[in-house]
């Protein structure tokens, strides 16, 4: 079990001051230019081919402001990419002939689908790796005995139950939108669990401390302010509580 000496509560201001030392590079001007071009092309397509009711829902979703929180933003990116991949399936392509322009269009659509598949898989892997990394880091502050094993078993069991819930929804014929609504609800459930742990008082807090071996203040703050990472929520936060001056751990 790692020492908790020197740990401090992870607050919004603490994280902001940490990341101020590592400013993100500005976006290329090409991003704005290409986004405008894509929007113009999409509007032209809508004039030639009015959207169905289901397609209108996707258009409304795309027109919304991006979520401010990075964790929700990542999930929305995944949802949008899955919708795009679904629409790029060959069965959804317009009727084509052997004309050169149709052959070129089919080639472009195929390459687009491959790129989105690759990007989606990269994002899934990125989220999963960071989830495990944070969980394993937090577990170093837990007792390395049967209590730590119980925590891991509970997490694994909880995640299996959540995945079974998603699988059942998919098998019922639910849409991509419905599936991601459920997955986001599951993330909020994890967050509520952490909120209950972070705000525990009295007998319950004493019981948690005794059974889990959680130090009284700092690790509870870490759990609460780290949101859903302890229970598998996927958000790539650096281990800034270690007072590192070398940037994010690789």
How does this structure look, described?
With 250 residues, the protein is mostly helical. The chain has one domain. 66% of the residues lie in helices and 0% in strands. It has helices at 12-19, 29-48, 53-63, 70-87, 100-139, 146-171, 176-198, 202-212, 218-225. It is globular, with a radius of gyration of 23 Å. Residues 213-250 have low confidence and may be disordered. Residues 45-65 are annotated as: Disordered.
Give the SSE string.
HHHHHHHHH
- Would you tell me the overall average pLDDT? 75
Rounded radius of gyration (Å): 23 Å
- In the predicted model, the low-confidence regions spanning at least 5 consecutive residues are 213-250
Strand segment count: 0
Structural class: mainly alpha
Largest sheet: none
What is the domain total for the residues? 1
Short description:
The protein is mainly alpha-helical. The protein has helices at residues 12-19, 29-48, 53-63, 70-87, 100-139, 146-171, 176-198, 202-212, 218-225. The model is unreliable at 213-250 (pLDDT under 50).
Descriptive terms for the model:
mainly alpha; 250 residues
Question: Topology of this structure?
Answer:
Layout: H1 12-19, H2 29-48, H3 53-63, H4 70-87, H5 100-139, H6 146-171, H7 176-198, H8 202-212, H9 218-225
Region (Disordered): 45-65
């Amino acid at each position: 079990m790692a020492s908790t000496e020197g740990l401090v509560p992870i607050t919004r201001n603490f994280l902001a001051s940490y990341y101020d030392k590592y400013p993100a590079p500005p976006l290329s001007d090409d991003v704005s230019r290409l986004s405008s071009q894509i929007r113009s092309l999409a509007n032209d397509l809508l004039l030639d081919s009015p959207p169905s009711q289901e397609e209108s829902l996707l258009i409304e979703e795309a027109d919304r402001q991006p979520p401010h929180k990075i964790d929700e933003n990542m999930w929305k990116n995944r949802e949008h990419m899955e919708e795009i991949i679904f629409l790029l399936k060959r069965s959804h392509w317009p009727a084509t002939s052997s004309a050169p322009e149709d052959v070129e269009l089919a080639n472009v659509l195929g390459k687009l689908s491959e790129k989105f598949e690759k990007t989606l898989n990269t994002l899934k892997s990125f989220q999963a790796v960071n989830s495990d990394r944070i969980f394993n880091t937090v577990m170093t502050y837990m007792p390395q005995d049967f209590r730590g094993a119980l925590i891991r078993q509970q997490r694994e069991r909880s995640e299996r139950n959540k995945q079974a819930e998603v699988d059942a929804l998919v098998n019922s014929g639910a849409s991509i939108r419905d599936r991601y609504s459920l997955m986001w609800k599951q993330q909020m459930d994890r967050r509520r669990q952490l909120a209950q742990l972070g705000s525990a008082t009295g007998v319950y807090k004493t019981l948690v401390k005794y059974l889990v071996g959680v130090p009284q203040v700092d690790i509870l703050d870490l759990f609460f302010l780290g949101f859903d990472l302890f229970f598998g929520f996927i958000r790539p936060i650096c281990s800034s509580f270690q007072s590192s001056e070398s940037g994010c751990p690789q």
